[in-house]
Amino acid sequence: QETSVWVVTADSPETVSTFAWTVAPPFPVREVPEALLRPLVRRTPRSFLVENGRVLRTEGGLPPSAG
Description:
two-stranded parallel ribbon, 22% helix
């Protein structure tokens, strides 16, 4: 199964655009409402396993290595 990395943030579209143009991350950065993130984030970075739009598991940090 293919694993992909997305970054979600409650920052403004302008901040997301500035980040994308200055850092050129190799992953998509998506803006989401802060209310959606608040219950998921306890400390950063925080990782989530998402399948079909549902959060199946969270990790307190970066995801474990797949290899």
